[in-house]
């Protein structure tokens, strides 16, 4: 078995570390967090992990996982580059979805394998993510040695993987943001509008779960093009115009968001082919005209 150092053992680090311990991929884990308190919380998830206060105190290890905030990674790498405990046989990787392995380039002189492993799932609750991890798809990127090592790790903890290039990571991560974070934002807007319309929380909860779940189920079953319903794809120009006006009266920023999303719905509508060119043009003009009337 291998030994593992985790720098910035937050939600993702806790989950992956616990999985590596459970599957007996590693038998010794050392944690270095910004505070002893956060390291102690992580230790409870991982079991018998050791804690150090400084990166310089981390022992020589087979695996080095950098799972801190993206903004902190360059500083961590700079510190690691000054250590003498990095081995050419080691694999050093970070778990950022947006950053690629080039941020690790200052460590290339160590001879270690350098790469990235990004599990594509939410880690809002690390314990739930731990239980639900089997089958999780991970994006793997880096040099050839790192890719081999990280795909092996991924499979051993029950994940699946695909390789991605360094150049494609940022665009792919932007897709994750739309598929995850932006959905939360849009649903939050929906709830705010319901409340502005005077609906009680009880009333909102009587239909909100079903409309959200139904939409997700349709997208997963049919794909986005076939799953789309509503005013834009039906070509209801007057109602779209009235909704934009109502939103502008309530909150101009939400009217702008509505327009931007309506434009994207129009692109799906074009793919569907349900509306004529004249109807598409009319919808496009009303969205643009509403914008200029502000």
Bulk shape: elongated
Oligomer: single chain
Number of structurally distinct domains: 2
What's the gyration radius in Å? Answer: 24 Å
Q: From the helix content, strand content and strand pairing, which structural class follows?
A: alpha/beta
Biggest pleated-sheet summary:
8 strands, mixed
Our measurement of the CA-to-CA distance between the termini, rounded to an integer number of angstroms, reads 64 Å
Order of helices and strands: EHEHEEHEEHEHEHHHHHHHH
Q: What's the arrangement of secondary structure elements?
A:
Blueprint: E1 2-7, H1 11-22, E2 26-32, H2 36-46, E3 50-52, E4 63-66, H3 73-81, E5 91-94, E6 113-119, H4 126-132, E7 137-142, H5 144-156, E8 160-163, H6 169-179, H7 181-196, H8 201-222, H9 224-227, H10 231-234, H11 237-250, H12 252-272, H13 277-292
Parallel strand pairs: 1-2, 1-4, 2-3, 4-5, 5-6, 7-8
Antiparallel strand pairs: 6-7
């Amino acid at each position: 078995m291998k030994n593992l150092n985790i720098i910035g053992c937050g939600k993702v680090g806790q989950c992956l570390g616990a999985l590596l311990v459970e599957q007996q991929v590693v038998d010794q884990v050392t944690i270095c967090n910004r505070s002893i308190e956060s390291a102690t919380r992580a230790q409870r998830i991982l079991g018998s992990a050791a804690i150090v206060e400084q990166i310089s105190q981390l022992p020589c290890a087979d695996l080095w996982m950098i799972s801190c905030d993206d903004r902190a990674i360059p500083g961590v790498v700079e510190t690691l580059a000054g250590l003498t405990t990095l081995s050419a046989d080691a694999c050093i990787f970070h778990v950022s979805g947006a950053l690629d392995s080039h941020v690790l380039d200052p460590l290339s002189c160590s001879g270690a394998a350098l790469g990235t492993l990004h599990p594509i799932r939410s880690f809002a609750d690390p314990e739930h993510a731990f239980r639900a991890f089997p089958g999780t798809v991970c994006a793997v990127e880096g040099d050839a040695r790192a890719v081999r090592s990280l795909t092996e790790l991924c499979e051993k903890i029950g994940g699946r993987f695909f390789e991605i290039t360094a150049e494609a990571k940022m665009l792919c991560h932007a897709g994750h943001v739309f598929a995850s974070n932006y959905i939360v934002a849009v649903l939050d807007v929906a709830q705010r509008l319901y409340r502005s319309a005077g609906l009680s929380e009880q009333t909102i909860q009587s239909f909100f779960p079903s409309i959200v779940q139904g939409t997700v189920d349709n997208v997963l079953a049919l794909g986005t093009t076939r799953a789309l319903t509503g005013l834009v794809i039906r070509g209801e120009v007057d109602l779209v115009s009235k909704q934009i006006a109502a939103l502008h009266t309530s909150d101009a920023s939400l009217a702008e968001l509505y327009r931007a999303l309506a434009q994207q719905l129009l692109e799906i509508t074009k793919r569907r082919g349900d509306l004529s060119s004249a109807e598409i043009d009319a919808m496009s003009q009303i969205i643009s005209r509403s914008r200029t009337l502000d």
